[in-house]
Amino acid sequence: MASGSAEQNKIKYNKWEQNGIIMAGGNGQGNELNQLNCPEGIFIDPYNNVFIADSMNHRIIEWKCHSNKGRVVAGGNGQGNRTDQLSRPSDVLIDKQNNSLIISDRDNRRVIRCSYQNEIKQQILISDIDSFGLSMDKNGFIYVSDLKNNEVRRWKEGDERGTIVAGGHGKGNDLNQLNGPTFIFVDQDDSLYISDWGNHRVMKWRKNAEEGIVVAGGNNWGTSLKQVSFPQGVIVDHLGQIYATDGGIDRVMCWCEGNTEGEIVVGGNGWGEELNHLNGISALSFDDEENLYVADHHNHRILKYEKCFN
Fold this sequence. Notes:
Distance between the termini: 30 Å
Number of helices: 1
Structural class: mainly beta
Largest sheet: 4 strands, antiparallel
CATH class of the domain at 16-42 and 128-308: Mainly Beta
Radius of gyration: 18 Å
Number of strands: 24
Shape: globular
Order of helices and strands: HEEEEEEEEEEEEEEEEEEEEEEEE
Helix content: under 10%
């Protein structure tokens, strides 16, 4: 099989425009309202406003569609553990039922709820957890990946420990183990998808399963279409196609469950700052029109790739 740029050029998956549009940041690394500093998780609301875990600015920032600057909705008061502070937040989602944000406050080892409509108030939902990625199912259960314990737990309001739904058998690469789980996604069937960062694979755990199945990668680190390197962002579309970031060579890949090879969606052109380049990508998301959003971590920006209709 061919490898490297020749393979990538051959396989390029042209469902999205290959040049991204800067939706947030892109004005250098910094803490002004038109800047980001190593963005991690992102969430797109129904109005195409982007909520960003602006990690090294220790804040969650809302960037309204077509705006040239954002609005701080949580944190932004320096790094710390006060109720008005965050420390390297890694993910964020909107709890529509409670009209609030759920935030993985990573270095404070907690998950918090934040009401952002009027006065900013923070409530600790989960403490003493090495949280990274978040997801929520249709019943309002919160899923949290735990980097240190190599597991994913499901929580409901009032839980003290939650329920292990993936991993929890120590660090490893067996089908019942994980190695550095990062971002996660729960589909309508309550199947859980996990970016298993240290194992260079994406895992799917069906509801109540004792072990997962590999749905992307799992062939060590590398550049072939059978591999995904240091994945972080993961999301599944309405057709069940799995999208994952390949942090090793700055590309987003699409995998169909059961296929041994993925396809390159965007990126794969080497790292850089041009609009067809990425640099250290983290989270992924779609809007309601199936445009793709990518947190371009080391370029300190969020890129939007418009869906092609021709």
